Amino acid sequence: MSTDLDTVRSYDAVAAEYAAEAAAMPEWVATEIDAFVTELGGSGRVLEIGSGGGRDALELEKRGMSVRRTDIAKGFVELLRDSGFEADLLDPLTGDLADPQRPGTPYDGIWACACLIHVAREDFSTVLGRLAEATRTGGRLHASVREGEGEDYSTRGSAAAPRRYVETYWREPALRSTFTDAGWIVSEVRRCVGKPHDQWLSVRARRA
């Protein structure tokens, strides 16, 4: 299991509240979507890891992409299905990443926005390697993690939707080398700021 069980249970318990809280698109995420879609030429099949409430998938589809929605939290998968979307329960460390709609055909891109923060450091390279294997040569990846040192058991969210989860923090040099070792060519790592004191490292990469 790539993600701490308490983290998964926390998201399961507040899936609808979290989706409402995260419905507004942060400017830095919109910028990353623009770059991702442009790099893929405005079309292609994308595997989304950590779809949550589905905000990013909708925007990607508006831009011409085809998105496979997945999440490790059953609460989010059920929420997406109740909203009329196909969605799969998927752990990127252990689950079958192959596209059920296109058996044997690799994805054109991987979208993993603000979700791999929950992958343990010792599993991170394995997850990135599995994502690379599922992607065509030259395919694109967006992934964003929190900038910092070590790991933390954080409490975030609102009073209506409190969340407790494990987060792994990264510095750029180690992050770049981990992506490279896992089969990705990193084109850019951007520092992005969400809420105050919310520092992200946003990775743009292509499949080697």
Percent helix range: 25-40%
Q: Which CATH class is shown?
A: Alpha Beta
User: What's the CATH H-level superfamily name?
Assistant: Vaccinia Virus protein VP39
- Helix and strand pattern: HHHEHEHEEHEEEHEE
So, CATH architecture?
3-Layer(aba) Sandwich
How does the overall form come out from the CA principal axes? globular
CATH topology: Rossmann fold
Strand content: 25-35%
Rounded mean pLDDT is 87
Give the N-to-C terminal Cα separation.
26 Å
Q: Would you count the extended β strands for me?
A: 9
Total domains, how many? Answer: 1
Number of helices: 7
Based on secondary structure, the structural category is alpha/beta
The poorly predicted ranges are none
Q: Let me know the largest β-sheet.
A: 7 strands, mixed
State Rg: 16 Å
| Strand order in the sheet with the most strands | 3-2-1-4-5-9-8
Question: Could you write a compact summary of the structure shown?
Answer:
The protein has 208 residues and is of the alpha/beta class.
Give me the secondary-structure topology.
Blueprint: H1 5-13, H2 15-21, H3 27-39, E1 44-48, H4 55-62, E2 65-71, H5 74-82, E3 87-89, E4 107-112, H6 121-133, E5 135-146, E6 151-157, E7 162-168, H7 172-181, E8 184-193, E9 199-207
Parallel strand pairs: 1-2, 1-4, 2-3, 4-5
Antiparallel strand pairs: 5-9, 6-7, 8-9
Keywords:
208 residues, alpha/beta, Rossmann fold, 7-stranded mixed β-sheet, two-stranded antiparallel sheet, 7 helices, 9 strands
